[in-house]
Amino acid sequence: MPTTAAGVDGLIGMPGVEDIDIVFDVTSAVAHIANAERLAGYGNKLSRRRG
């Protein structure tokens, strides 16, 4: 399972990013919106933590 501490930029820079089905976003709800937009072109589903 690929992981990165470099945020969405780090994930997008990984080889095979388009093969990742689900991205778990542990940022704020506001950042989640921007991250979802950035990842939309790669076909990933973005999930965020609640709480």
Task: Write a structural description.
The protein contains 2 helices and 2 strands, in the order αβαβ. It has helices at 7-12, 29-39, and strands at residues 22-25, 45-48. Strands 1-2 form a two-stranded parallel sheet. The radius of gyration is 10 Å and the shape is globular.
Whole-number mean pLDDT: 81
Total DSSP E strands: 2
Oligomeric status of the shown chains? single chain
Overall geometric form: globular
Helicity level: 25-40%
Which regions have little confidence, pLDDT < 50, spanning 5+ residues?
none
Strand order of the largest sheet: 1-2
Radius of gyration: 10 Å
Q: What is the element string, with H for helices and E for strands?
A: HEHE
The helix tally amounts to 2
Mind describing the biggest β-sheet? 2 strands, parallel
For the record, give the distance between the C-alpha atoms at the N and C termini, rounded to a whole number: 24 Å
% residues in beta strands: 15-25%
Task: Give a short overview.
By secondary structure, the chain is of the alpha+beta class. The chain is built from 2 helices and 2 strands.
Layout of helices and strands, plus pairs?
Blueprint: H1 7-12, E1 22-25, H2 29-39, E2 45-48
Parallel strand pairs: 1-2
Q: What structural keywords apply?
A:
2 helices; single chain; alpha+beta; two-stranded parallel sheet; 51 residues
